[in-house]
Amino acid sequence: MGLPIHFVVDPQGWFCVGVIFFIWLYNTLFIPQLILFPRFEEGHIPAAAIWAYYGASLFCVVSLLRASTADPGKLLECPKIPLREKDYWELCNKCNLMRPKRSHHCSRCGHCVRRMDHHCPWINNCVGEDNHWLFLQLCFYTQLLSGYTLILDFCHYYYFIPLKTINWDVFMFRHELAMLRISTFMGIVMFGGMCSLFYTQIEGILTDLTTIEKMTNCCDQVPQVRKPWQQTFSEVFGSRWKILWFIPFRRRRPLGVAYYFANHV
Ligand SMILES: [Zn+2]
Ligand SMILES: [Zn+2]
């Protein structure tokens, strides 16, 4: 796709991304082997259930890789400030560069990011104007995948009838119970964590406030003109086509209105 790779040098961040990637890899490798394929062979589930699992897994890992390697909206050294936007730019006192309002200086990354939401160690990247949409997709698909995994873990033991033909000599079937317990534990942690994160993110988009703005209560005094939800979501996802909000295999096209609040314009 010819996308430039943005890479944050932070060993602690690499560790966090490694944990998330490990959870994804563990489930993508073992759940089909332990549950999906044997259940399909015995006719308990349709092939579509396997495709759906791999589909959710693919969307999850693509949004993870893209969110962590996409440029979140780093400011250029010498930005061209459009004349009509001049009043909405200010000087960052940390990096001494001009930046549009709602930008924030990330001390972890060492630069300013346009419409920065927060720095996320779990993707080892800032979440800003250009990759916020990928971060939301990551939260959504992680919820989907971990929720699906939990349902499969549950059905495998309590709902489906026991398997007849399985090769107990193979390592993973000999340790099936322990492996599924690990998967269930990771599923509960991921699903719970992602549900609360996704809810706060959606609330932030609906109110057109970033996490940093909410935490600093910077906008309490500013009377906000409420934008319609379609508008705030379109600005974040860079498209008015709702189907594209779910697709991580594309380029975001900025709608050009996210620098400032509607009431500032
Ligand atoms: Zn700065
Ligand atoms: Zn950062």
UniProtKB/TrEMBL annotation:
Catalytic activity: L-cysteinyl-[protein] + hexadecanoyl-CoA = S-hexadecanoyl-L-cysteinyl-[protein] + CoA
Entry's localization field: Membrane
Bilayer-crossing regions: 12-36, 48-67, 140-160, 180-199
Catalytic class of the enzyme: transferase
Limits of the Palmitoyltransferase DHHC domain: 87-216
A Pfam cross-reference name: DHHC
Main localisation: membrane
EC numbers for this chain: 2.3.1.225
Membrane topology: Multi-pass membrane protein
Protein name: Palmitoyltransferase
Organism: Staurois parvus
